[in-house]
Description:
Layout lengths: L1 H10 L6 H10 L1 H5 L6 H10 L1 H16 L1 H5 L2 H4 L6 H34 L8 H23 L5 H21 L18 H4 L5 H23 L8 H24 L2 E3 L4 E3 L17 E2 L5 E4 L7 H15 L8 E5 L5 E3 L2 E5 L2 H4 L7 H17 L7 H13 L17 H11 L3 H16 L10
Helix pairs in contact: 1-8, 4-9, 5-8, 5-9, 5-10, 8-9, 9-10, 9-12, 12-13, 14-16, 16-17, 17-18
Amino acid sequence: MIGLLRLELRRNITPFLLPTLAILLWLSPYGRSLTGTAVWTRRGEALQETLLGLGPAMAGAAAWTASRENRARTRELLATTARGGWSRTLPGWAATALWGLALLAAATGVLYGLTARAATWGGPPWWPVAATCAALLAFCSAGHAIGALLPGRFVAPLTAIGTFLLVVVAGALKTADASLGLVSPVGQVTDPYRALYYRAGHDLPVVELIFAAGVIALPLGLLALRGGAGGPLVRPAGIVLTAAGTAVAGTGLWLAGTGHIVANQGIATIPRLESRGDGRPIAYTPACDRTPIQVCVHPAVKARLGAAVAALHPVTDRLAGLPGVPTTIDQRMVDGPSIRGSVLLLPAPFEAYDTRGRIRGRVAREMRADTAAGLLLGAWDGTGSARQAAVLAVLVAAGDPPDGADLPIRDTPGPAVLAAARRLAALPQPAWHQWFAAHLSALRADRLTLKDLP
Length: 454
């Protein structure tokens, strides 16, 4: 058996697909994640997304290997040999699976190695690696069974195409909040950055592992049940494998059916697999700069601190030194700006975490709008014409468009509010500072009108 496995490893088609698979990896979220900030949780999810291209390719390679006897029309001739059909086909499946695992191990080593060099917090997540390996073996098993049971020269490419379509549909079901779609190894439903702030459970990868284990065993068991599979022990083994695979895959589907996705929180929960402590806040020491109003970020995204400071500087420089204005800005996973003691909590710009370089455009404007509203007013409810005009004045002075499009309010400010904001923004810095120092308390209490603004 070992000699046959060595032969199958040399004859396998997977090495010839390596350039194509490398391109697929680079074009997938795997490659795109390498150009962003090195965050362990984000890179772990990107590893699983490689299966969108790698999984169908390996299923097609397994089908090509398994269909060799049918293509060469040697099945009846080989049936006269001492080895049964099952023992002849297992080394081919094992060879494809080993090549796939070797490629996945190399991809994981490159991804995690580069992340280890650049990451500033946390450690490598191994649950995504285990779920990805199990899913890859499942693709190989399913593809091998299809190639062995269905004759034809086009079975391999059709298997790859069909598997790709199946994976796309499963990923769409998963992202569409369909609970049964939770068994799919692709499709992002969880927020990778939430795991930086709150302890994340392993519900999702465990369900994916259970379902993949069933899919691995079921096709191999079906191959042992066909005619000419082997001696008297092969058929009972096939029955056991088929029954066990069906039961395990069914268990995975049942567990997924009991779960649900909390879309606004970016988490997926499966009650029967929850562990104590899931969702508990994670303690960490933030990374902060040393400006008058210092900006702090999670240490995992310390590399983006300078970009965040630069994006907020037009607002923080304008408001620094005002009495009652917080002296620290802490970006966290919150819904909106709020003040805790002398610290302003702001929503973390997760879009900016996935990039490099300066923070520009809509993300930067939204960050400045939240910062201006938070520093001036604490909690921002969008009511009060004078409050809107004051926040808009800060943004206009910072160089943002004076249309209020990025304010966290439903209705666009009217012409009177915009005119008052432009007048206030045009004040010289000493007069600006003096007026806000005298009226900030009344502004926060919403006791001012547009006529009270200079």
